Amino acid sequence: MHCTFEPETLGIFERLAQENQSFMVVMGHFGNWEWGGNTFSICCKHQLYVIYHPLSNKYFNGLVYRMRTRFGTKLIPMKDTLRDMLRNRKDLTATAFIADQAPLPDRAYWMEFMNQDTPVFLGIEKIALKIRYPIVYISIRRVKRGYYKVFAEKIELPLELQKDGTITELHTRKLESDIRRQPENWLWTHRRWKHVRPQN
Fold first, then answer.
1. For a Cys staple, 41 with which of 56, 71, 102, 105, CB 3.0–4.6 Å?
2. What is the pTM of this model?
């Protein structure tokens, strides 16, 4: 498996490191996200943390944990996200969120995504505004079998948010564009539309 970073992508990470600026990564189940994280931990100066849902099966949870941390990546259980990010504020960190998971419908921000009424987590937006970390959208695109390239784009945070969902819609639209470009590289089996919008 080969995963490389575009020069512009490495430039974004290098500038953030020179500024001693931690940041948040937002991405989807697109391309080889697991190997992209490992490559980041090998190549970049920031300590990578990945937000994850611990599995109920202890054996498989341990297997996944070891696989994801073998190159230096650290994991944060989703319920501890803000607490751990605040605890790590003195360190140079990149905290990665997989943004296309399905939140509970009554706590979600609802928007159209891939022509479907879709619940989306607002947590990335809320945390970024609370701790004023920049957000970097990551796209891991398949070049050919076994070869991937990582592209990054910085999302600027507004000084004041006009309405909930502004930042969330920005990164969700970027993922939608990636999926339309390479639909075969998105994880279609993860039941993105299992919830229905609650009726008022």
1. 71
2. 0.90
Q: What is the tens place of the pLDDT at every residue in 179-198?
A: 999 999 999 988 889 889 98
The phi and psi torsions of 19 (rounded to 5 degrees) equal: -85, 0
Q: How far, in Å, CA of 164 to CA of 125, rounded?
A: 8
**β 147-155/23-27 pair status:** unpaired
Total structural domains within the chain: 1
The answer to whether the beta carbons of residues 47 and 22 sit under 8 Å apart is no
Token pair listed for 112: 């159209």
pLDDT, average across residues 15-34: 94
The rounded distance, in Å, linking the Cα atoms of 60 and 45 is 30
Helix (H, G, I), strand (E, B) or coil at 52: strand
- Torsion (CA) 75, 124, 114, 139 in degrees, nearest 10: -60
CA distance 105 to 96: 23
* Domain enclosing residue 156, as ranges: 2-185
- Residue 151 near residue 9 (C-beta atoms within 8 A): yes
Asked if residue 192 is part of any domain, the answer here is: no
